[in-house]
Specification:
The chain is α+β, with helices and mostly antiparallel strands. The protein is 15% helix and 31% strand. It is built from 7 helices and 18 strands. The two termini are 28 Å apart.
Length: 348
């Protein structure tokens, strides 16, 4: 597996342009994982403000907004940074990520794949008023693991390693280990279906999460839709396809084609591309990184093939590290791998 630091490495072309390279083992299907792309953007911003704007002493991204306009692809990419506002406490830059036809390091005429804005500051030097808010997660998560060694060995009473679904399609899921509530522990069965709690660590020994890797953390979790029973997702698909009316499935326990061995008994493999992603960093992680982070993901509405995701990241001490919001689509996996028509142009 390609190490995270290598997968997110950026090389300066000049003072405002940076070269990236997306490896195949950080992909979902044929598309680089959105969290990896976000982490690469954070890495480029850190490099930009550590070199081009080093005197400003604003090495940390405190807020980010990205729009994923077209599918990214495995291989070389270029990221252009345009300085929008350079200030004493915060600065804002605009980024454009390009690759594909018309792309080269000297003359990039290809359409943008990802665009966005980042706000930079210095989290170590922040000063100003602070007030308690008494914010808590609701419903409360299960107690944190008492021993990370016991967690890895499967001995924790509340948390168990989550299964990787469709690992051949979602190769990127091999980069981390997810630990989710055990069945019967009061977690998975007692929480809303559209809510996912996890403790996560990198699967590569010795790898640790840094502030830059938060771009990946906020997009790495068991998929919310796949926490629903298969039969419920299948019924929703049948309604969306117009193959059955809503009133025909209200109260159904099964139905033709949905039972065991039925034609449509499985909802199939899904792809969940992100259209828009926002991130706010609340706490700077130590330079050496941390091994474990807690992540809660919740959808408020899943409707007409589109869903929102609210992501909250806490450290082992329960302190708020980052918050994020996504706008995503729910698509069949063929939309990820299709090479003809509109998809050949990289559009979602």
């Amino acid at each position: 597996m390609t190490p995270f630091a290598q997968a997110t490495a950026v090389n300066a072309i000049d003072s405002h342009h940076y070269a990236l390279d997306f490896p195949p083992d950080w992909c979902v299907g044929s598309v680089p994982h959105g969290g990896l792309v976000t982490a690469c953007v954070l890495s480029a911003a850190k490099t930009h403000f550590s070199t081009t704007h080093a005197p400003r002493n604003q090495p940390h991204t405190i807020a980010l907004h990205l729009s994923f306009l077209r599918r990214t692809a495995i291989g070389a990419a270029r990221l252009a940074i345009r300085d929008i506002k350079l200030g004493r406490r915060t600065s804002t830059v605009h980024i454009t990520l390009t690759q594909g036809p018309g792309y080269d390091n000297d003359n990039d005429s290809s359409p943008p794949r990802v665009v966005g804005y980042l706000t930079q500051s210095n989290l170590r030097d922040e000063t100003g008023i602070s007030l308690p808010t008494h914010y808590q997660l609701h419903p409360p998560p299960l107690p944190a693991p008492s021993s990370t060694a016991g967690l890895k060995e499967g001995k924790d009473p509340n948390w168990v390693r989550g299964a990787r679904k469709h690992p051949g399609f979602r190769k990127v899921t091999g980069q981390v280990c997810w630990y989710v509530p055990r069945r019967g522990s009061g977690g998975g069965g007692g929480q809303p279906k559209a809510l996912v709690d996890e403790w996560m660590c990198f699967s590569r020994p010795g790898s640790r999460f840094t502030t830059t890797s938060l771009g990946y953390v906020i997009d790495s979790f068991p998929q919310v839709v796949e926490g629903y029973p298969d039969e419920e997702v299948v019924r929703a698909q049948r309604i969306a396809e117009g193959s059955v009316a809503l009133e025909e499935v209200d109260g159904e326990g099964g139905g033709e084609g949905e039972g065991e061995g039925g034609k449509n008994s499985s909802p199939g493999v899904k792809w969940y591309p992100t259209l828009v992603l926002n991130l706010e960093v609340k706490k700077l992680l130590p330079e050496e990184g941390v091994e474990w982070l807690f992540v809660r993901v919740r959808a408020k509405e899943i409707k007409n093939g589109r869903m929102d995701l609210e992501v909250v990241v806490l450290d082992e001490g329960g302190e708020l590290v980052a918050i994020s919001n996504h706008v995503c689509l729910v698509l069949p996996f063929e939309r990820n791998t299709k090479k003809s028509g509109r998809e050949a142009k990289g559009k979602l």
